[in-house]
Amino acid sequence: MELKAVCKINIGLDILRRRSDGFHDVETLMFPVEGLYDTIGIERSASTEFRQSGLVVDCPPEKNLCLKAFHALERCAGIGPVTITLDKRVPFGAGLGGGSSDAAAVIRGLNELFGLGLSTGRMVEIAAELGSDTAFFIESRPQICSGRGEIMSPFDPPIAGLWLAVIKPSFGISTAQAYAGVTPHIPDRPLAQRLAAPISEWQTTIVNDFERHLFALYPQLGELKRALLDAGAIYAAMSGSGSALFGLFEQKPELTFDPSIFVHTEQIAACSNE
């Protein structure tokens, strides 16, 4: 079987506090990017194998989240061996959740392939054990995510019909590096209240808390965000822990960047939270 593993952007990312378990409580709107995805293939086989093509990932195969997802299902459901193929198209080290989405796709695929009958809630629980945003990709629908990212509430922002541009410089940023310099704080208003305001107000009220210190470390990020705004974006921000950024446009943008910059554009379709 073949599955799409879409990526996501974060519209707003409030880092509220550091927890006693070493993680951070956050609040963020995760929004799926339907046109930018990896492709996962899963087939029964005599022994478990993992094969990858496309973008080269700085991660040994045995540590890939696809295999971690398989082993999680193997432990809880006793499934047999499979061959997993990954055609990697989503940039990594970008804050787009590509690896997490791959893991969630494997969980969904194995549930179907072996007829496990796992509920969405159970798959979310398994996914949450693999990573803070992996649970989001079980359903891949717009959600306000809190806690570590695993507590989700459907939220459909008024951006259908707008154009989305996702860009990424040649370097990536690790999640550990991003969190190392962050200063948690509680905003004056919850994210959902700020998202309810007109999009024209978002640029001054909806922020990604990683931007302040990461833009100081990597000035190119601030330059790229400014380039999106100068190109007509009505809202622009960094996604997740970076290094990808995105802009929302009323018209299809005409973007001119150095060839080293990854660029993806798509028109946002209406989302269903049913």
| Global geometry | globular
Structural class: alpha+beta
Over the alpha carbons, how many angstroms does the gyration radius reach?
18 Å
Strand content: 25-35%
**Mind summarizing the main beta sheet?**
6 strands, mixed
User: What name does the CATH topology of the largest domain carry?
Assistant: Ribosomal Protein S5, domain 2
| Count of all domains | 2
CATH architectural designation of the largest domain: 2-Layer Sandwich
Number of helical regions: 8
Helical content stands at: 25-40%
Poorly predicted ranges (pLDDT <50, ≥5 residues)? none
> For the terminal residues, how far apart are their CA atoms?
25 Å
* Number of strand elements: 10
Order of helices and strands: EEEHEHHEEEHHHHHEEE
Q: What's the overall average pLDDT, rounded?
A: 95
The level-1 CATH class of the largest domain: Alpha Beta
Short précis:
The chain is α+β, with helices and mostly antiparallel strands and 274 residues long. The protein has helices spanning 65-77, 98-113, 120-128, 175-180, 191-195, 202-205, 211-217, 219-230; strands spanning 2-18, 24-44, 49-54, 82-88, 143-147, 151-154, 163-168, 235-238, 245-249, 262-267.
Notes on the structure:
The chain has 274 residues and is an alpha+beta fold. 26% of the residues lie in helices and 30% in strands. It has helices spanning 65-77, 98-113, 120-128, 175-180, 191-195, 202-205, 211-217, 219-230, and strands at residues 2-18, 24-44, 49-54, 82-88, 143-147, 151-154, 163-168, 235-238, 245-249, 262-267. The strands form 2 sheets. Strands 1, 2, 3, 4, 5 and 6 form a 6-stranded mixed sheet that branches. A hairpin with a 5-residue loop joins strand 1 and strand 2 (24-44). Helix 1 runs parallel beside helix 2 (98-113) and helix 7 (211-217) packs across helix 8 (219-230). The longest helix has 16 residues, at 98-113.
